[in-house]
Design brief:
The protein is mainly α. Helices cover 66% and strands 0% of the residues. It has one domain: Four Helix Bundle (Hemerythrin (Met), subunit A), CATH 1.20.120.1630. It is built from seven helices and no strands. It starts with a helix and ends with a helix.
Length: 197
Amino acid sequence: MKNLGKIFFRYRSYSPLPFVILMILFMKPTLISIIIGLLITFCGEFIRLWAVSYAGSETRTTSGVGGTQLVTQGPFGFVRNPLYIGNITIYFGLGLMSLSLFPYLQIIALTFFIFQYYCIILEEEEYLENTFKDKFISYKKIVNRFIPKKCNLPEDLKSDIKIDIKNGLNSEKRSLQSISIITFLILAFYIYYILKS
């Protein structure tokens, strides 16, 4: 699983592409699917932006698992992997917007991305445990991997990082561009379909 995690980590930026292609080829959006899907997508991007405004652009690396700090603030105080939860939420929202091969494509994509991120997380957690030792072990006992909950972290586990929204937005340029392009294609198809009817 950990070797698979290394491969998934390196190519995680490209793994959504087959799903995006299928989504575009088979889309059948409705006004309701666009509105609900867009709201879900915005929620996912909000989670990502909130997380990356603390974690910084280190989260963009593909060379290998790493990190100079153990971030426990912001969304990391509720769940250990907010970026991956944000990604899964975005993918699900976009899939719902398009209604492509509904519900099969959405279920398959959701299953794949949960599995992919689980493998990556195993690799990341080994690195974090080796690097931050007892601090990460204590953090892991308090904060869940995937299911958010309100946690009261002791002071010695709280990271001393200031939120930087500007840096977060800068780091999120690629994600925001991708979301905008896919949303534009879905909306253009929907408008074309209405005008054609």
